[in-house]
Each structure stands twice: as C-alpha cells, then as structure tokens.
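This part of the workshop introduces the protein records we will be handling. An example says more than a description, so a record of this kind follows:
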Amino acid sequence: MTIACLSGKGGAGKTFVAVNLAYAAGKSTYIDCDVEEPNGRLFFKPEDVIEEPVYQAQPTFDADKCNGCKACVKACRFHALMYVKEKPVLFSEVCHDCGLCMLVCLQGAISEEQYSVGVIESGHHKGVKVISGILNTGEASGIPVIHKALKCAEGTTILDGPPGSACSVMETIMDADYCVLVVEPTAFGFHNFKMVHELAGLLGKKCGVVINKQTAPYEPLEEYCREHGLTVLDRITYRPELARHLANNEIAAECFPEELKRFRTILDKIGGAV
C-alpha cells in the first residue's frame, strides 16, 4: 500500500505526519518527494546512507546535418524548441526528456546527452527504509528526481509530497492508493487545501484529512469536509511540548507512546478505507 501525504502549502505539517506514519508502520519505506527541500532525513537520521546520481537526457543538435525543416519544433508538445537564426534553440527548463524531437528528425541531426539533475539518498532508521530525493540547486524541475525516487517504493510506502498542487505533486501521487491531506485550520491553509483536494479528486484518489496545529475548530474547513464526504482522520492539537521535540528533529511517535498510538490508529483507518 502506498500513502501520499500532501498539503496545499508549506509548514502545515506534511512531513511531520509522513515521518510519523512511516515510523508507526514499523517495517516500511519513507520516500521524500519534496526534492527542493527534503527534510524527512533530519528526523530519521538514516544510517548506512548510499548516494546515487539522477541524470536527465537533453537533446543536442548537429548544425551540419540540420536542414531547417523544423519538424522537431512542430513535434514538441511542451514548446521547448524554437528555430532562431537558422538553428534550433532549446529551452531546457521546459524540456521533458521525451525524445520525440530525436524520433522525428529524418536527418539524424539530434542526439541526446546526459546531465546530472540531483541525487537519491538511501539509508535506514530501525525498520524504516529512508529515501530522499535531492534536486540540484538551480534546476527548474524536480520530476526526474521524484520519478527515480518512487522506484524505491517497497511494501508499505509513505510518500512525503511537495507542497502545493503543481506537476511535481501530480507525479508523486499518480500511483498512490490513498492521499492524506494535511491542513492547518486557518483561512490561508484552507484555501490551498481545497486546491490540492481538487487535484487528488481529478486523479480519482481516495482522501482523508489530518487537521494539524488545531487550537479551535475552523468551521469553514469542517463544513467543507462534511460536504465532500472527507474523513477527518485526526485533529492534532497544538502542544508546545510536541513543538519543542519537532524543533529538535525528533520523531514524535518515537518519543511519546500516545503519538505512536495516534499514528497507528490513522494507519488502521486508512487501511480500512483502501
């Protein structure tokens, strides 16, 4: 079973929930798909870490063979190519490494070269296999790193998704069995929560909600969950003591028996729903 933890905005507690679910599951795999700022490893402090580079292919052009037919430009559905001053120009930030330009070039003027976009760190913490995708600074898209990290999924897998509702989130949850939507009970948190819920709905994913850092019920959020038939898996109240442990990068379920019980109960609810 694969469970994706998502949040519409940063700071809602998505990593907190994902890390503790993985720990509570016992023998599990935790994959940090928030590749621009992966911080699950700060809590797990994995041992025996192995690092593996992630490469992406990028088209290169042989000017001597190119006859200016523009077939590659017309074929690129991502608009990553233009023909400027009698030669193809690549916008690498929007290139999706699909290889179509190379296939349609009848002159054989296009080849591919590999370049590094990030790394995958693999280690373990007790029974948890800890995988962290890390995007190189300055790279525009983390999807190649996320794609490779997801190949490490094994057994009960907890995905710590990127915040928001962009392409990287869609890539993360594509094969997930269930989505845990982590939301803070504020107007800002609720607004972004609705966007990520809409994305999960478009992909046909079953969802449950964890309301984190609650000090009082936020009625618009509660009403939305009722209207859309969303199960509130738990309401985690704000506790200064818990916040201090999190600030020290400690796993709550490892420190507090009641938190271990909490996250095992959430896992049981998810298992029943799936």
